[in-house]
Design brief:
single chain, 144 residues, HIT family, subunit A, five-stranded antiparallel sheet, 3 helices
Length: 144
């Protein structure tokens, strides 16, 4: 059975994409610790990040770093936090989020989907896409 992330990547479920290539997709989580909270996910379903092929891991981490640099430029924050937990969805993903303290490192502080403001979520996605030069599908605008 496909993971919820695969369903988002394949368009079966909605997602606010900010980046996408042939190996990795990045989209906003519906349960952010702060607006601008992105999940960087390999297209291929792999449960544990430690089971990724090394080159796949390096690419995933590189995209997460690029998204983190964009988070720093797009949001008023001291750091771009990262977290790999993987218990909530059995599909490798790196959380990248704006951080000013350690509170975001506990996913227990995340907003539920009904607590988020859809307009704020859209603004966050638009800010990240503008900084990354990507369209609504997450692909570079030159390819969109």
């Amino acid at each position: 059975m496909s993971s919820v992330f695969t369903k988002i990547i394949q368009g079966e479920l909605p997602g606010r994409f900010v980046y996408r290539d042939e190996t990795v997709a990045a989209f906003l989580t519906i349960e952010p610790v702060r607006y601008g909270h992105v999940l960087v996910v390999p297209i291929r379903e792999v449960d544990k990040w430690t089971d990724l092929a090394e080159e796949e891991w390096l690419h995933l981490a590189g995209v997460a770093q690029r998204v983190g640099q964009t988070v720093l430029r797009s949001f008023d924050c001291q750091r771009a936090g990262t977290l790999i937990a993987g218990f909530e969805v059995p599909h490798t993903h790196i959380h990248v989020f704006p951080a000013d303290d350690m509170s975001g490192y506990s996913l227990g502080t995340a907003m539920s989907p009904d607590e988020t403001d859809p307009q704020e979520m859209d603004r966050a996605a638009e800010a990240l896409r503008a900084a990354l030069g990507t369209g609504e599908d997450g692909r570079p605008l030159a390819e969109a």
